[in-house]
Amino acid sequence: MDKQRDFVLRTIEERGVKFVRLWFTDVVGTLKSVAIAPAEVEGAFAEGVGIDGSAIEGLTRLFEADVLLHPDPATFQILPWRGEIDPTARMFCDITTPDGEPAVADPRNVLKRTLEKAADRGFTFYTHPEIEFYLLKSSKLDKNGRPVPVDSAGYFDNVPGGTAHDFRRRSVRMLEDLGISVEFSHHEGGPGQNEIDLRYADGLTTADNIMTFRTVVKEVAIEQGVYATFMPKPFSEHPGSGMHTHMSLFEGDTNAFYEAGAQYQLSKVGRQFIAGLLHHAPEITAVTNQFVNSYKRLWGGGEAPSFVCWGHNNRSALIRVPLYKPSKGQSSRVEYRAIDSAANPYLAYSLMLAAGLKGIEEGYDLPAEAEDNVWNLTDSERRALGYSALPASLDHAVSIMEGSELVAETLGEQVFNYVLLNKQREWSTYRAQVTPFELQSNLEML
């Protein structure tokens, strides 16, 4: 740690950094920032930086308002979009109470706690997200009240001179400058929709990287005169934006999900992990899919999963066991397909990991795999096969989560209660709206 701190202080001096942004995240997953002068960084490492936590949704109760930000020197990066005029750097922070205890409502700490629980069982949790988003010409709606995409291209389309090409190239370069490795980038299925996949990293690094990724994408969009949105379903007739996440557990250098000769080379640990995710999926959906709009994606087609089942390379299933090259057993993994791009990655990954660990601890049995296209089955066929539905609305998801011991224990009382209250309030506000659909359908007829 001292070497990392020394590196940060030396780099600030050598690169002429003028501002250091201390980044942290609220319970909803909104990135927050406090800027300090370079002269304050050494003191921030030693003592933290005090802020009023009551201004941050979910972080503290009013009578526990004072919290301290402790920058993590391992996350120090100079922000490339700031350029060479007044260079600016950032560090992610851990949040503590004044007496030095981790703040129970710090989302980053929630994930750290769950990762420590996995470490106690000998596991390291690795994740690899595929992040989808839409590029729009503006944040403004057209005269018909609809967003306007930057192109009309489709899945994997190569658009000569297209906005998306330049955008993805610039974004990938900027992410690499920030130390975030990118595996793939391409045009997705919807007009103006893009996907950028980050390389495998441990769970905490990935969550930090996702928060940085969203900021980079927004900054590059502004730079290029367009607008980026991670809204799960901005168009009713086009696919939503998911964040399919590949996961694996390692024991040292060994992939705990791999077993040579087993079906799909998937070990008992891997099968139990999937079983845990399946069993608890409805309980965690209010966090992996946390907005009213998230359920327009889950139930709006476009390859979004709607039913609780798993399959080998079956893209209609909630959990997929991907194909991989036979010589690469270490790449055994499972892919969770419900989570969307607007989730708080710290809380969502905490719950996905906790659900999988529960399956391992309790020895859950993995049900039979889904071999058919689940979307094409009738309701009675799905019932006969035991494929239950994911929650159909935010209200439904919150009511299921409210009774979940797993979610309450993983998030901690304060975060759990805040998420419930926040989402109940969102649903109540949404339910009170009179929508264009109702007016168009009912105003003249009734």
In short:
By secondary structure, the chain is an alpha+beta fold.
What is the number of helices? 13
| Shape verdict | globular
Strand percent estimate: 15-25%
Average pLDDT confidence is: 91
- Rg computed from alpha carbons, rounded to a whole number of angstroms: 22 Å
Question: How would you sum up the major sheet?
Answer: 10 strands, mixed
Helix- and strand-based class? alpha+beta
Order of helices and strands: HEEHEEEEHEHEEEHEEEHHEEEHHHHHH
Separation of termini? 69 Å
What is the count of β-strands? Answer: 16
Sequence stretches where pLDDT stays below 50 over 5 or more residues: none
Keywords:
single chain; 446 residues; alpha+beta; ten-stranded mixed beta sheet; six-stranded mixed beta sheet; 37% helix; 18% strand
Secondary structure layout plus pairing:
Elements: H1 2-14, E1 19-25, E2 31-36, H2 41-47, E3 49-52, E4 66-71, E5 77-78, E6 88-96, H3 107-120, E7 124-136, H4 163-177, E8 182-187, E9 193-198, E10 201-202, H5 203-223, E11 227-229, E12 245-251, E13 254-255, H6 268-288, H7 294-298, E14 310-312, E15 319-321, E16 334-336, H8 345-362, H9 379-385, H10 394-402, H11 405-411, H12 413-431, H13 436-442
Parallel strand pairs: 1-6, 14-15
Antiparallel strand pairs: 1-2, 3-4, 4-6, 5-6, 7-9, 7-10, 7-11, 7-12, 8-9, 12-13, 12-16, 15-16
Helix pairs in contact: 3-8, 4-5, 6-8, 6-10, 8-11, 10-12, 11-12
